[in-house]
Amino acid sequence: MLIDYYLPLKALHLLAVIAWLAGLLYLPRLFIYHLDFDVGSKGYDTFCRMERNLLKIIMLPAIVMTFLFGILLASATEAWSQPWLHMKLLFVFLLAGFHGYMARLAKGFARGEAPPLSKTTLRFLNELPFLLAIVIVFIAVLKYF
Predict the structure, then answer these.
(1) Cβ atoms within 10 A of the Cβ of 69, count?
(2) How far is CA 26 from CA 12, 62, 138, in A?
(3) pTM (global) more than 0.90
(4) pLDDT (tens digit, 9 = 90+) per residue, 45-79?
(5) Average pLDDT score over residue span 14-33
(6) Which of 3, 2, 41, 47 lies closest to 26 in space, CA to CA?
């Protein structure tokens, strides 16, 4: 019965992934600029608010919808036993772990704690979600494994 909704579920899943990845790509960039402000300054507080809003208003609903629609898609296509899905999920969970780590850094900024990372490291982390997304897309589309 879920298979009848395959295309709408796929479209919703892709839209949720796009919103989630946009947030994952933007948040480390915010951290880079955030480091230029002193704790308690207006700019510092503005970045704290931007990061909190990005996490709560965009990224949290997007990750929930990504997983919800992904689970429904896997159920609709009976893909749970497929090795390619297991591999894809490994990388999706890595992406979710990255999300959690970024959320932890944002909470540290909100407490007035600078992250234990340099701007160079944050620039590298800024690219990591896209690299993981490339792997995920190729696994999902080409069904490697």
Answers:
(1) 20
(2) 21, 14, 23
(3) yes
(4) 999 999 999 999 999 999 999 999 999 999 999 99
(5) 97
(6) 47
